[in-house]
Amino acid sequence: MEDNDSPNFCTNCGAPLRDSDTFCNSCGAAKNAGAARTPSSAQRYPEQKGNKLMVFGLLSAIWAIAAIGLGLNYILSADAIASELDSYEGIWEALYDAGITYDTIVGWITIIGAVLVSSGVFAAVTALLCLIKRAYTVALIACILSSVLGLVVLLGAIGFVVAYFLSKEKNNFIDNASKT
Known about the structure:
The chain is an all-alpha fold. Helices cover about 55% and strands about 0% of the residues. The protein has helices at about 40-45, 50-75, 80-85, 90-95, 100-130, 135-150, 155-170. Helix 5 packs antiparallel against helix 6 and helix 6 (about 135-150) packs antiparallel against helix 7 (about 155-170). It starts with about 40 loop residues before the first helix and ends in a 12-residue tail after the last helix.
């Protein structure tokens, strides 16, 4: 780094330029010393432009891990979870009167587990696409599907909020950056 950095900024992206720079280190545009300008804060810190996508990606990754873990736990422990109902006196009589058997309960728990795993997989797709900033439409659809499936434990509602804010970040996806 030189100590004599100039206050010049790239006319293309707003990144700071040194006197010795011929091209912008951020976007590669040729330096135009005569057209230097003071950039807006969004141009001055271009790396902040996609930070929301990283946050959405990390939130989606957290949900992916939690949903897959919880879902697998439900699937693998369905029998043990159903057996917990034994601690409630008279519950099986009431369930049998309603036509619900032990196997039905185990099946429901297994289905809930599978739905949670599916939600987690869609959240993982969303996380990956947000972090690499690609395939906006697929990321949004995966986020919505993850949210719908996550409603089985009511936490999917949070996913709809993420989907809404993700839709506002469409232009930060590399595929959509030049589209208006």
